[in-house]
Design a protein that fits this description.
Blueprint: H1 2-12, E1 24-25, E2 28-29, H2 34-47, H3 53-81, H4 91-108, H5 120-148
Antiparallel strand pairs: 1-2
Helix pairs in contact: 1-5, 2-3, 3-5, 4-5
Length: 149
């Protein structure tokens, strides 16, 4: 998924990126990635600790990977309990993750603005990334299942 996002980012990135005004809210800027915002909120609300810039750099991919691993594990368990879940080779799962997580949970948690304030390209990028995630989850699940059989 990271390889896909990196390539897609290079293809869709404008020549001169637009800069959002930075507004400090808690321990993060509005322009920070959602993963950094989530890590900052968790750290401040649970541990009463404001993340340093270095800790944010570490938290960014860590939160992404932890959430992805949890979702992938959920998919694997669901697929074992109900094999119809694998219909579409994980792609419907990717669509569901994009719709539920990026379009509902993230805005509801205050980690982004409402979906209608984001450009269509942002939604398409998210959808495409999560389609790759869903497909990857199924390929990993299937290969793991075959190795364990």
């Amino acid at each position: 998924m990271n390889v896909f996002q990196s390539a897609a980012g290079r293809l869709t990135q404008p020549a001169e990126p637009r800069r959002k005004p930075k507004r400090r809210t808690q321990g993060y800027d509005d322009a920070d990635p959602t993963t950094v915002k989530a890590a900052s909120m968790l750290s401040e609300n649970v541990l009463r600790h404001r993340l340093s810039p270095r800790q944010k750099d570490i938290a960014d991919p860590a939160v992404h990977y932890v959430v992805g691993a949890m979702l992938g594990g959920f998919y694997g368990v669901a697929a074992e309990l109900e094999p119809r879940v694998t219909t579409g080779t994980g792609v419907p799962f990717g669509v569901a993750v994009a719709a539920v997580l990026d379009e509902a949970v993230v805005p509801a948690a205050g980690l982004s603005g409402p979906p209608w304030e984001s450009p269509a390209s942002t939604h398409l990028y998210s959808l495409a990334s999560h389609l790759v995630f869903g497909l990857t989850a199924e390929v990993v699940r299937r290969n793991t299942r075959n190795l364990l059989a």
